[in-house]
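Pasting as-is:
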Amino acid sequence: MSPIEFLRSTVVVDFRDDWYSLCVAAKLGQYVSAKRRNGETYKKYVGLNAHDFRRSAIRNMLRRNVGEKISMTISGHSTRFVFNHYNLVDGSDLAEATKKIEAGQSQPSVSGTGTPDRSHTKLTDINVRVS
């Protein structure tokens, strides 16, 4: 049986009820009272969900320098728009970027020859054009 034939013959099961029950038992979620638009009350699950793991997996892949295209393929995202919603930036990401930028400023830039690049162009009104 080919992988495509296997996938077509596979029955998809909704695991959410079992997941919610396990998370409530582990104190990672809870049921709270909520109302539907028609006024009917029901118990709504609030807590850890499967998409939290998807988001963590994407963040971990990108932080470990797995390419975005490969990460998108693994996570099943076909558009960058939706993928970017999972790739959230937080304070630790900004702190890490700041460290990298500051470390780069303390080192002299190096040209392709391996020697420090000392040529800097001075901007004057003669060589700057505004269009």
